[in-house]
Amino acid sequence: MARAHPTTRVKVRRGTLISVDGIEAAEIVAAARARLAEVPRQRRAGVSLWDASGVFDDLVVAGRDAGAPSARTLLLLYAADLAFRLRWEIRPALAEGRVVAAAPYVATALAFGRAAGLPAGWLKQLFRFAPRPAQACYVDGSSARSGFIRFACGQLSLANGFLAQDVVARARKHLKPSARSRR
Amino acid sequence: MPPRLDNRRLRELARARFTNPGGRRGFLVAFEGADGSGKTTQRKLFKTWLKAEGFDVVTTKWNSSDLVKPIIKSRKAVQALGPEEFSLLHAADFRHRVEHVIMPALWDGKVVIADRFLFTGLARDVARGLDLDWVLQLYQPLLWPDLVFYFAVSADTSGRRVTATRTPNFYEAGRDVTDLDDPVESYHRFVTRVIREYESLAVIFNFITIDAEQSMSQQHYQLRELFREGGKRPWSEWNVDAVVEWLALTRQRA
Q1: Chain B residue nearest residue A62, CA to CA
Q2: Nearest Cβ partner for B249 among A70, A76, A128
Q3: Which residues of B touch A72 (CB under 8 A)?
Q4: By CA distance, what is B65's nearest residue in A?
Q5: Reading across the β-sheet that carries B27-33, which strands appear in turn?
Q6: What residue ranges define each of the domains in chain A, with the CATH number in brackets?
Q7: Is the ipTM of this complex over 0.90?
């Protein structure tokens, strides 16, 4: 009998959380959908996306007069959005025994936080409420046109004189170890 | 952009600013207590008195940043917040005010009066069932007030004063965690928990407790006296991390 080739198929269990993290939103969403496509249709719950709560959309409305948010403030808001996603999208799907993909999840936020110079210990504590994924994937994309990190750099650069590309490059370096450590 | 300063140099700058014996340093006073404890009335009287005494005073209120307040308000209106989101959004609002209101005023040598400080977040969030240690982490790096006035009232007094003129709203009454439909009954149950948390925090963080069942004038004159005594306190070294982080941000923004 031929030896089975190492498979990339998702091992289906009751209630499975897959995290997909990366810099570019379009790429991580595509990767998350590809993962879910390997799961039987009746077990698929869908992809939980960044800003499902609309917090960051509302932040843009506040405008520049409200003052540029710091990296710490942005991460507290990211965590609030993630708490919303967990409550309304991820945990209900897991409770129904479905496979749900979170794209992005915690590793993206950790990478941005580290790139912005925040302490690793604080970041780890902040996201303590988020369950560990059964599978953690990282998309090593080349672009950074959209998504949380791109958005966050844009917000910071309003007033801070941050060089967005530096933060993106540093976040990319941090992303892989962060994603691995969450496995 | 100004030259990047290392952490050691920023610490030196912070200490020099807040321990300069020649000048009046920034001073942070927090007013804490359950709803209906009368702290807002006392805060206003206290501010008027401080200004008459020649102090430059800035007031900051809980959940008041231009950036985050609208986000919280819209979600409260549709009762969409779970305990974690509630806690995280208030911590974000607080952080933004620390960076844009509180620290700049302290750096300029002003007296900052905070009508509720991070202890409000701790008391309410723990009363909602969250872990104190996790909630405390959200407020890092911690900025400790020079004085915390805690206005102590019983749950009965708080309930009587709040419900005398209005019905407590959904979150104020803690209906998100009590599962009670009656706002007054829910308020009483929730504020009992909040007061219990405040009493613990008062011991842990060395609050100055004001008996808020006293007359208004008794409380006000007590505050004056306490400020005259406490106003000579040296700057707390515990605050150096918070000042350094803000200085680093400010220099990036300059």
Answers
A1: B67
A2: A70
A3: 95, 245
A4: A66
A5: B57-61, B111-115, B27-33, B147-152, B208-211
A6: 17-181 (3.40.50.300)
A7: yes
H or E, element range at A45: strand A44-49
Contacts of A55 in chain B (CB under 8 A): 71, 89
Write down all domains in chain B, each with its CATH number in brackets. Answer: 7-15+24-247 (3.40.50.300)
Distance CA B77, CA B38 (A): 25
At residue B216, does pLDDT exceed 50? yes
- Is residue B123 scored above 60 in pLDDT? yes
Alpha carbon distance A131, A178 (integer Å): 15
- Whether the CB of A157 is below 8 Å from some CB of chain B: the reply is no
- Per the omega criterion (within 30 degrees of 0), is the bond before B141 cis? yes
Closest Cβ opposite residue B88 in set A76, A125, A162: A76
State the maximum Cα–Cα separation within chain B, in Å, rounded to a whole number: 59
Q: Give the list of residues 6+ apart from residue A130 with CB closer than 8 angstroms, or none.
A: A82, A86, A105, A106
Which chain B residue's Cα is nearest to A59?
B67
Note whether A19 and A135 are within 8 A (CB).
yes
Residues 6+ apart with CB under 8 A from A102: A17, A18, A19, A20, A32, A47, A48, A85, A90, A133
Which of B68, B93, B125 is best to mutate for the A interface (most A CBs within 10 A)? B68
CB atoms under 10 Å from CB of B44, counted, come to 13
Rounded Cα distance between A28 and A18, Å, is 12
**Residues, chain A, total?**
183
What is residue A182's predicted lDDT score, i.e. its pLDDT? 42
Statement: the pTM of the whole predicted model exceeds 0.90 = yes
* Residue A35 burial (10 A CB sphere; 0-12, 13-18, 19+): buried
Across the interface, of A53, A65, A159, the residue whose CB is closest to B253 is A159
The dihedral formed by the CA atoms of B28, B34, B39 and B41, expressed in degrees to the nearest 10? 140
- Between positions 19 and 48 of A, the ones with CB within 8 A of B are none
Structure tokens given for A164:
């967005």
Name residues of chain A where pLDDT drops below 70.
Answer: 1-13, 157-162, 177-183
Show residues of chain B in contact with A160, CB under 8 Å. Answer: 249, 252-253
